[in-house]
Design goal:
2 copies of one chain form a homodimer.
Chain A lengths: L2 E2 L1 H8 L3 H10 L15 E2 H15 L4 H13 L4 H41 L18 H5 L3
Antiparallel strand pairs in A: 1-2
Chain A binds a DNA duplex (30 and 30 nucleotides) through helix 2.
DNA sequence: GCTTGACCTGGAGCCCGCTCCAGGTGCCAC
DNA sequence: GTGGCACCTGGAGCGGGCTCCAGGTCAAGC
């Protein structure tokens, strides 16, 4: 069975050594095996689990919720429905996260376009006070362009 | 000119009173006007700006970067190109945020599907050790279904 | 046999972004 | 005139998620 040193595990997972130790300490990882010298040796399974952790973390799951998932996983087979429920809820959360990002991104792009329009109007044709007005409220400005 | 009490501003923007005061303190808002009693009165402009702040914050911009944007805005007209650059960079950041979320979401959905498949297999046809194996490595299991 | 380097531990510290608190003001309703 | 309420201030505290540190162990290479 392949074993990974902490350094290799860090390399593979992108977590820092400290973070790996921290995750073990709080129980997000079950106790990692040790060699004779007491040094950790991560298994292939540990790395798979860490991959899942990275995925959940990077999609905004809190450590508390990941711990819940870890517990379910440790409890065995009969928690699979609960795990599905947990992941499905998270999946929906990710979905709405994406939707919100898209929507706010449009506002940002609108603002960029607004600034571009301002630059496109020759100096002096508009008063300089932007005053944080929303782009939509300056449509007059954009019309002045034609 | 419409003015908003702190309570109304909080209501409209979704920021807490404390957060509004905090934002003013750190300079993310320029000093808010006061009435005779020294109480804040937010202007329409303040609310517009706060709308932008919410947008940037909710898309993951740090306070430090929002401060940078606020400074540019205060410096006036000649910083518009810089502001475009800043927002365009943020727009790209949002884009890759979304891409990453989508990608990780697929992994999560794959895991959900894996669990569903496990449930679909009648008891006893598989050994119970999941051991955090990635779904792809258990394809044998899924084939066992047919 | 000594250095180097990767690891170990427990515990403190850090950064971010708020959030809460104590003590005070001003105004309105009863 | 006395609640009650919305607000004020400066400053402390907090929760999340790490990150750093001091002091120590072991293994390999020179």
């Amino acid at each position: 069975m392949t074993a990974y040193t902490p350094g290799q595990a860090a390399e593979e997972t992108g977590f820092s050594l400290d973070t790996l130790r921290y995750y073990e300490r709080i129980g997000l990882l079950e106790p990692i095996e040790r060699n004779a010298a007491g040094q950790r040796r991560f298994s292939e399974d540990d790395l798979h689990w860490l991959g899942m952790v990275r995925c959940l973390r990077d999609t905004g799951m809190s450590i508390a919720e990941m711990l819940r998932f870890a517990e379910l996983t440790r409890e065995g087979e009969h928690t699979i429905r609960d795990r599905i429920a947990l992941l499905a809820a998270h999946d929906r959360a990710v979905e709405s996260q994406i939707a919100e990002l898209r929507q706010k991104q449009e506002v940002i792009q609108g603002k960029i376009q607004y600034y571009r329009d301002v630059l496109a109007i020759p100096d002096g044709l508009y008063d300089c006070q932007e005053k944080h007005a929303a782009p939509e409220e300056r449509r007059d400005l954009q019309h002045a362009d034609g």
